[in-house]
């Protein structure tokens, strides 16, 4: 028996109900996150339309002013999670156009002139990504600062260094903590690279082939605070998916660093090690075992790192086999993209108080030293006295018991070359961190200033 299939009238045609639900997917939900960015992109497009040298003007200065006022109102509603996107809208782009048309009539119907949803969503995703990366960099820098603080407070606290999870050579808490700090600084450099690639405007490429109107792509790029427009309009469309995978890959690399840090802390806070004690308020209990103090945050960070890596790979895989031009497959990247950035941001943020509140147990650290930990140092000491290294190696290997009374503190003081226990140069890492902090702070101010000038209001709007 054939069922009567309902249809829905949308801005872009009449669509079968099942087709509409399937093709809209999660967009009505996800695009609540994208609405602010889309309003900002639409504001720049509106300003460009009224300045476009055609007669009659597509949008007059007075009409443009009204559009900017209504877009600012939508931004305020979206920030309060009060902007509704219906299934018939399909996405925030058509929801915003519907709202402008309802409020401004003919002016709202003219606002899409010279653009496509293809360049519209690509622009909104880049603006959204810009704000997310600025936030992520801020949290990553906060965690880097917490690790450098830990390294500075316990710079010369002896700690067994390990390879293959087995005792290896004398190390220190300062060396261990600052290693992760430097790792995060590298991740931030990677994030900066993604930020710079993201910081170009695709707006005006329309469906990927330009339009027969004298639009000014450089103007909209400048209005939106981008470094410049993407030159080739086909390439502007082809960067969709590519840029999301680049940003997610940078976030994934940070998450790998956080996961390894979390794994170390899980191991080194076990009672069998007891090198560190986690902040009690950041641990959870058991429903049955009263004594439990579980490192659930660290375990979740470890798992969430796998998720972000998978989301980055998902974006790459969806993009990998696509022909040039827009393909609807790209819609499936939006969820992993937003989820991945959210996860990385939350993970970096929660690790800051975890590291800042870490207690170092010096007595347990010293108890971890066994004679064999000093073996390589002793062999190198003999080599420094003129004994061929391989002879020294075997001589020490055959008499490990003689190293029983070696002093861990003295062992880490002897290593004075660049980057080792007695020469960490934390000042250099602190200076690198300060430089990155200054860069991202400047970028945030520049972006906020551009949007504030565009809307005629102080951004972010409350």
Task: Offer a concise description of the structure.
The chain has helices spanning 17-24, 27-30, 35-51, 61-79, 92-104, 106-110, 117-153, 173-198, 217-223, 233-238, 242-268, 296-320, 331-356, 362-367, 375-384, 389-397, 408-413, 426-455, and strands spanning 7-10, 13-16, 158-163, 166-172, 276-277, 359-360.
Q: Care to describe what's here?
A:
This protein is mostly helical and 462 residues long. It has 3 domains: 11-113, Fumarase/aspartase (N-terminal domain) (Fumarase C, Chain B, domain 1, Orthogonal Bundle); 118-366 and 425-444, Fumarase C, Chain A, domain 2; 371-405, no CATH class. The protein has 18 helices and 6 strands. It has helices spanning 17-24, 27-30, 35-51, 61-79, 92-104, 106-110, 117-153, 173-198, 217-223, 233-238, 242-268, 296-320, 331-356, 362-367, 375-384, 389-397, 408-413, 426-455, and strands at residues 7-10, 13-16, 158-163, 166-172, 276-277, 359-360. The strands form 3 sheets. It has a two-stranded antiparallel ribbon with strand order 1-2. It has a two-stranded antiparallel sheet with strand order 3-4. A hairpin with a 2-residue loop joins strand 1 and strand 2 (13-16). Helix 4 (61-79) crosses helix 5 and helix 7 runs parallel beside helix 11 (242-268). The mean pLDDT is 94.
């Amino acid at each position: 028996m054939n069922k009567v299939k309902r249809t829905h009238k949308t801005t872009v045609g009449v669509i079968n109900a099942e087709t509409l639900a399937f093709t809209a997917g999660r967009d009505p939900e996800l695009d609540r996150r994208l609405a602010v960015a889309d309003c900002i992109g639409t504001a720049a497009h509106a300003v460009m339309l009224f300045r476009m040298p055609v007669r009659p003007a597509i949008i007059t200065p007075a009409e443009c002013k009204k559009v900017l006022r209504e877009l600012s109102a939508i931004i305020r509603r979206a920030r309060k999670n009060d902007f509704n996107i219906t299934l018939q809208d399909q996405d925030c782009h058509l929801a915003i156009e519907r709202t402008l048309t309802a409020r401004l009539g003919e002016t709202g119907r003219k606002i899409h002139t010279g653009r496509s949803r293809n360049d519209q969503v690509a622009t909104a995703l880049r603006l959204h990504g810009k704000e997310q990366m600025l936030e992520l960099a801020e949290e990553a820098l906060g965690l880097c600062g917490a690790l450098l603080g830990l390294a500075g407070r316990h710079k010369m606290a002896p700690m067994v260094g390990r390879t293959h999870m087995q005792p290896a050579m004398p190390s220190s808490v300062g060396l261990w903590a600052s290693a992760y700090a430097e790792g995060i600084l590298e991740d931030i450099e990677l994030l900066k690279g993604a930020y710079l690639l993201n910081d170009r405007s695709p707006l005006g490429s329309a469906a990927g082939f330009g339009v027969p109107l004298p639009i000014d792509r450089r103007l909209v790029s400048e209005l939106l605070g981008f470094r410049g427009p993407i030159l080739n309009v086909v390439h502007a469309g082809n960067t969709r998916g590519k840029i999301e995978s680049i940003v997610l890959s940078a976030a994934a690399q940070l998450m790998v660093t956080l996961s390894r840090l979390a794994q170390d802390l899980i191991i080194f806070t076990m009672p069998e090690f007891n090198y560190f004690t986690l902040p009690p308020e950041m641990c959870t209990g058991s429903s049955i075992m009263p004594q439990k103090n579980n490192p659930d945050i660290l375990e979740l960070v470890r798992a969430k790192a796998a998720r972000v890596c998978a989301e980055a790979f998902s974006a790459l895989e969806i993009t990998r086999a696509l022909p040039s031009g827009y393909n609807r497959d790209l819609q499936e990247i939006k969820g992993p993209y937003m989820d991945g950035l959210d996860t990385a941001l939350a993970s970096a943020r929660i690790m800051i108080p975890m590291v800042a509140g870490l207690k170092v147990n010096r007595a347990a650290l010293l108890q971890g030293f066994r004679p064999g930990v000093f073996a390589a140092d002793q062999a190198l000491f003999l080599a420094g006295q003129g004994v061929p290294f391989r002879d020294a190696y075997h001589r020490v290997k055959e008499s490990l018991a003689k190293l029983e009374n070696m002093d861990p503190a003295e062992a880490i003081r002897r290593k004075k070359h660049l980057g080792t226990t007695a020469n960490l140069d934390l000042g250099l890492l602190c200076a690198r961190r300060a430089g990155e902090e200054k860069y991202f702070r400047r970028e945030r101010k520049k972006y906020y200033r551009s949007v504030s000038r565009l809307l005629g209001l102080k951004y972010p709007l409350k």
